[in-house]
Specification:
Binding site for substrate: 44, 299
Radius of gyration: 20 Å
Strand order of the largest sheet: 3-2-1-4-5-10-6
CATH architecture: 3-Layer(aba) Sandwich
Distance between the termini: 25 Å
Protein name: Carnosine N-methyltransferase 2-like
GO molecular function, one term: N-methyltransferase activity
Keywords: Methyltransferase, S-adenosyl-L-methionine, Transferase
Bound molecules: S-adenosylmethionine
Number of helices: 14
Structural class: alpha/beta
Oligomer: single chain
Subunit structure: Monomer.
Number of domains: 1
Order of helices and strands: HHHHHEHEHEHEHEHHEEHHHEEE
Largest sheet: 7 strands, mixed
Strand content: 15-25%
CATH topology: Rossmann fold
């Protein structure tokens, strides 16, 4: 696969076809709402819970050996639920060790919600938190300007690489932030997901308003091979119940289509032919399956564990 082509080709290919004035991208706030709706109707976080339970204890067992503090960096942490689950695993595997947790997250609403979650957690003694309300690139620039290149034992980038400015450089930079025996965890959509099929085989159904990279696991592992870094991939099944997308005018379905297409009010602003074609694409077996009369879009995830 041509990695450059894979990650640098953005949906803007369709701009001539579907650049109609009433269509616009989601703002950061609208994206937060659409993402919440996606989480409510998908097994995204349950899939991560399964990985945390089955694999994470082994993965983090060798981190920070002999140190009194384990340094953790979350990049694109969102509202922090996944981060806190991983911190609790670290606490269980390394009892008594302090955890220094830094977070790079540009969305102020997400940072505020994360802080609130920490305030309400009774079990985070020995854990310190530093939030950087920045994009990963801004953080990288800040680190380079200050010349303080702190090393981390564990860095995670969970479902966030789609939105960074430059994926290869981002991975290269954060990999360089790993301490000896450190690990970088990247969670990204699997090549077997409906997203991968939608982006590859039905790209023409997606409007130009969708911004971000169409990247799945294979694009990342190709880059890691080029960088010559050791990594292991775990594939886990996950589904997203998109049945409401097929009910014209349904509010829940409308938010789902907004998340799928990165477009505000896709249902109300996209040309009817595009709406019809997207719905047809979503029903294709490479995207979705039917269970008990519900349409389940494949949201399979890949957990990539990269060595330092
Ligand atoms: C899909 S959410 C995932 C949140 C969380 N990691 C999770 O899995 O629940 C993507 C997150 O990446 C953040 N993000 C977007 N662009 C980013 C960038 N350039 N650098 C760092 N984070 C970014 C968003 O604000 C959002 O919180």
């Amino acid at each position: 696969m041509n990695f450059e082509a894979e990650i640098l080709t953005t949906p803007h290919d369709n701009s001539e076809l579907y650049m109609i004035p009433s269509m616009r991208s989601l703002t950061a706030e609208e994206y937060v709402e659409a993402f919440k709706s996606f989480l409510d109707h998908s097994t995204e976080h349950q899939c991560m819970d399964e990985f945390n339970k089955e694999q994470m204890p082994n993965i983090v067992a060798g981190l920070g050996t002999g140190k009194s503090t384990i340094n953790v960096l979350g990049v694109g942490s969102g509202t922090g639920e996944q981060d806190l689950k991983m911190i609790r695993i670290l606490q269980a595997v390394h009892p008594g060790v302090s955890i220094d947790n830094e977070i790079v997250e540009p969305n102020p609403q997400h940072v505020a919600a994360y802080k609130e979650l920490v305030n309400q957690a009774p079990d985070l003694q020995n854990v310190s938190f530093i939030w950087h309300q920045l994009t990963s690139l801004e953080y990288e620039q800040q680190v380079k300007e200050k010349g303080t290149h702190k090393k981390f034992d564990f860095i995670h980038m969970i479902q966030m690489l789609y939105r960074v400015e430059d994926i290869p450089n981002t991975i290269k930079f954060f990999h360089s932030c790993l301490d000896h025996h450190g690990k970088l965890l990247i969670i990204i959509l699997s090549d077997s997901s409906g997203w991968a099929s939608l982006w590859k085989r039905h790209r023409d159904c997606l409007p130009a308003t969708d911004s971000g990279h169409y990247i799945t696991c294979g694009g990342i592992t190709e880059l890691l091979r080029r960088l010559g870094v050791q990594h292991r991939v775990y594939e886990l099944p996950s589904g997203w119940d998109i049945t409401e997308c097929f009910s014209e005018g349904d509010a829940v379905g409308g938010r789902m289509l907004d998340f799928l297409t990165g477009t505000k009010n896709f249902q109300g602003t996209a040309p009817p032919a595009l709406r019809r074609r997207l719905r047809e694409a979503l029903r294709q077996p490479e995207c979705s399956s039917t269970r008990d009369g519900r349409v389940i879009f494949s949201n399979n995830l890949s957990m990539i564990v990269v060595d330092s």
